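Our consortium's second objective concerns turning raw sequence data into structural hypotheses that experimental partners can test. To show how far this objective has progressed, the report includes one record in full. It was chosen at random from the queue rather than selected for favorable results. The single chain below, 169 residues long, was entered without modification.
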Amino acid sequence: MTVAKKVETQESWSATLPQQTADTGEKAAVELSLVESAEGFAELAEGWLVLEAQLDETFSYFQSFNWCYSWWQHIGENADAQLKIFVLRRGHNLLAVWPLQLTSLSFGVKALTPLTYPHSEYSSALFHKDLSEADCKRFVDEVLEQVDCDLVTLAKIPSGTRFQKASAG
């Protein structure tokens, strides 16, 4: 059972994305989806862990599946927060994951923050090593267009990372 909502995008993703699925060897459509439930979160485990093994950056601990899932089970589910995990995939292969949450602040302000905020040292997303800088930027832009919020807070983005370049400007 898949508990993720497909997110509509205005144009197709670039041909620079990894072209084949590992399980079938066939081309599959690229899809941006949003996970907002604990069940959907748990279903991401295998693909998320595979993606972690394919990263070419060191700033990923606070976006790791184990850290995020444990945090959600023990803290996030009990807080006034809505799970917002955005996933870019081709078939069963995850190409990008951005674990976020939507929280309510004073005066009814809705804030989009990293999932494990305030218990994380930096903000980032996970990108497959073969994802182009242009596709990383498009992923970030598409996600930010999807969330209805008043404030986006992404503190401590590590300098020189693909996420820092994708979120700049």
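The partners drew two points from this record. The first helix runs from residue 38 to 43. The mean pLDDT is 84. Both points have been shared with the crystallography group to help prioritize constructs.
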